[in-house]
Amino acid sequence: MLKRISQFFQRDKSSKSASGPLVFGDGQHCLSPDMINRDAFKVVDVLQKAGFEAYVVGGCVRDLLIGLKPKDFDVATSAKPWEVKELFRRSRIIGRRFQIVHVQFSREIIEVTTFRSNSSQSTSKNRRQQTDSGMLTRDNVFGTVEEDASRRDLTVNALYYDPSTNSIHDFTNGIDDVDAKIIRIIGDPETRFREDPVRLLRVARFAAKLGFNIEPATANPMKHRAADLQQVSPPRLFDETLKLFMSGQGLDTFKILVEHRLFDYIVPQLGPMLNDRQGIPMKLVSQALINTDKRIRASQRVTPAFIYAALLWPAVQRLASNFEKNGNSSPYALSKAAGEIILNQIPVTAIPKRFSIPMREIWDLQLHLRRRGGNRAQRLVEHPRFRAAYDFVLLREQAGENLDGLGAWWTTYQDANPESRQTMADDVMATDRSPKKRRRRRNSPKPKADPAQ
Ligand code: ATP
Ligand code: MG
């Protein structure tokens, strides 16, 4: 596939005009109008027939070129938001400062963005305010298609496809970079990262997703701009982390984040614990992401609660063990540590309650799953968070924690019939009560008391 693309691209390079974009016409690339989602095609068609410029743009063009299935199809046009709205009955303008139009179709919504300019005059404005609000203020300055291309983040994300002529318009040599598998920031990398630090994460995300290399001029400033991530609003950073870890290439993305010191600003409480590359924290997070990637490939459900539970667990465990050393019971220490660690994380990535509550349940259950004698095991299996907590036990064991075969015990228990389950639970109860076991326990971590809450 890439070979074919490559041949097409080279053929066209010779036809580069002195100014304006490279245009890859019909037969000079591997795209065809039937690859474009019907509704996006319709939007482009209506806009063009009304006399506006319109293209399918961004990630979908990039993905189609390299043979991936696009997540969505975005349209960029010279029509102003209100002009777009007039053309489509079922449409509405979204956002105040960054206005886009959502055109509703029976199956989906097509997002239509007016060409914007990234006018450099505004870079002299108060930088902090600028960084806090990302590029929103500037992005409502409308512009030409060329200006629109240069305000985008990556060359491979700035390709404009016109289905009516089956041509790709390339203002930033994005086609060359697709061909050479290169992630390159458009414009001066340092400036573009400073304008919007989320672009640091986007570089990491797309390098991992596409399997591309980050070219040196883009990669060089990443480490020392990483701290700018602290200026990104916590809700936006939370959303970005979901894209980083839940898009199917979580492990590769994580490696790039660590390499460029970006991860320290996403989960600061874990960052220093990853310095030991062979340590359990590194293994736990890597394994959590390997498992998540596998689940996504198998179209299984993944939840941010589980991922964040894994990302923060090493910090929770360490703090809980400090509290225990100070004489607190295990459940109390764990609960107090969990509360503190979450509280510290919220100002970085604002984890919504609907995720932080299940996270705490998964952590709490790590203690409960050990106390499984008598009727407890049966009750625990019925707990709504049991499955996640059990998966979390397996994850901890995969990462090298020694839990005395707890995962295997629960695996067997779940597969067993009611009688066998009872026998297993009775055996645990008997072992817990045996004096030998008690004696042995005195040298190992404190016995777990009943949960305080
Ligand atoms: P995908 O949807 O597959 O994750 P995408 O490239 O479509 O990838 P989106 O987040 O949907 O990414 O953004 C659409 C387009 O908007 C991008 O391709 C890029 O051109 C532009 N864009 C998005 N975020 C930024 C940003 N922070 N700075 C500059 N341009 C951006
Ligand atoms: Mg997209």
UniProtKB/TrEMBL annotation:
GO MF annotation: an example: ATP binding
Q: Which InterPro entries match?
A: NT_sf, PolA_pol_head_dom, PolA_pol_I, PolyA_pol_arg_C_dom, PolyA_RNA-bd, tRNA_ntf/polyA_polymerase_I
Q: What is its EC number?
A: 2.7.7.19
Q: What is the protein named?
A: Poly(A) polymerase I
Q: What is stated as this protein's family in its record?
A: Belongs to the tRNA nucleotidyltransferase/poly(A) polymerase family.
Q: What task does this protein carry out? A: Adds poly(A) tail to the 3' end of many RNAs, which usually targets these RNAs for decay. Plays a significant role in the global control of gene expression, through influencing the rate of transcript degradation, and in the general RNA quality control.
By its UniProt entry, which CDD domains does this protein fall under? NT_ClassII-CCAase
Tell me the organism: gamma proteobacterium HTCC2207
Q: Where is the tRNA nucleotidyltransferase/poly(A) polymerase RNA and SrmB- binding domain?
A: 211-270
Which Pfam families does the UniProt record give? Answer: PolyA_pol, PolyA_pol_arg_C, PolyA_pol_RNAbd
Q: Which residues form the Polymerase A arginine-rich C-terminal domain?
A: 329-442
Where are the catalytic residues? Answer: 72, 74, 153
Task: Name any Gene Ontology BP term.
Answer: mRNA processing
Q: What HAMAP family does the annotation carry?
A: PolyA_pol
Keyword Manganese belongs to the record: no
The region called Disordered is annotated at: 117-139, 420-453
Lineage of the source organism? Answer: Bacteria, Pseudomonadati, Pseudomonadota, Gammaproteobacteria, Cellvibrionales
- According to the UniProt entry, which residue ranges have a biased composition of type Basic residues? 435-445
